[in-house]
Amino acid sequence: xxxxxxxxxxxxxxxxxxxxxxxxxxxxxxxxxxxxxxxxxxxxxxxxxxxxxxxxxxxxxxxxxxxxxxxxxxxxxxxxxxxxxxxxxxxxxxxxxxxxxxxxxxxxxxxxxxxxxxxxxxxxxxxxxxxxxxxxxxxxxxxxxxxxxxxxxxxxxxxxxxxxxxxxxxxxxxxxxxxxxxxxxxxxxxxxxxxxxxxxxxxxxxxxxxxxxxxxxxxxxxxxxxxxxxxxxxxxxxxxxxxxxxxxxxxxxxxxxxxxxxxxxxxxxxxxxxxxxxxxxxxxxxxxxxxxxxxxxxxxxxx
Length: 303
Description:
single chain; alpha/beta; Conserved hypothetical protein from pyrococcus furiosus pfu- 392566-001, ParB domain; 3 domains; two-stranded antiparallel ribbon; 14 helices; 7 strands
């Protein structure tokens, strides 16, 4: 058997498989199980398996679980779950909680599983990335998962994008949802409000006005375009044009608004863009804290 260590240079961006294969021995479970089992499937009693404490999904649809349980009763487990060993006769889920929960509903006493070695941070990364890539998470669950990867796994936004296969703008759009009031976040979570509606509301500075537009959008079932128009009208009334400044022609104004929206989306904050008929103007990027400033500087690649 070769003693050559696996090459970790290209691990970034290879997803869950890379994390599983490259897990170094660092914690209690690894001392008990020093050699990583990379092939073979083991039948493990359900009673010996703990749920994953790092599981980002907070809600599992009961009807969907019942349907999966019925499928398991008929055809069994098609794809094994993945676990790590904590102690003799004690395991913890890495991925496959829906299959695990549905198997209990189906009346199974054992379940096929791969056994892997992973420390707590790797468990968190695996659980988050596996869910983001394979489960139909709502937008808020994705946003919270991205935030946890940044905060708890010490990833930068560019690294996070590589991990989950998304560009930085997409990641920013999800993270910006976390700035919305809890009521609106709950509506996004419960799919009463779409991602498009939410992105429009983020551009309103006042929380009270955000909530007012949100209430109107839900009650009247407004389209994303109509919500965007409401937001634009409110922002225009709050920041009226100076009478001394000549008005831009409609086409030029439309182009400038589009550029401003793209800048706001890219930097994850409201951006002020002003220009005159001679194409002279300024761009203002506000920040709320030293951390927020560092985030913007990182996007600008200044630090």
